[in-house]
Write a structure and sequence with these properties.
- The chain is mostly helical and about 130 residues long.
- The protein is built from 6 helices and no strands.
Amino acid sequence: MKGLVRYSEAFKLQVVNDVETGRFPSGYAAAVAYGIRGAETVQRWLMHYGKSHLLRKVVRVETADERNELKRLKAELRRTKEALADAHLDLALERAYLRISCRRSGEPDVEEFKKKHAGMLSMTPPKTNPQA
């Protein structure tokens, strides 16, 4: 592990000035040019010396419709996840019932049980969804 590097105030001010005057387009470019290892070191210096306006910031502007759509999509995703969890639970239960049916019929192999009873399964009426 390399030792901790401490930079002088004069050096920090020089780097900040270089970013402020446009010598470097960003704190990252200055860090690369000066060999400063910390990924956010120059950004911290810019903030410390009151030059945070030089930091690149992403500003997201949303309309009310976009915010509503985001809320709607999040709610839909939540409902979809809940439905998937229910489907996984149903599948786990059906597999457990199938294994029980296999044991009770004396057929140790689930695949063989499925083959023997495939005709009966296709005659079973489909489940209805009481919530639909």
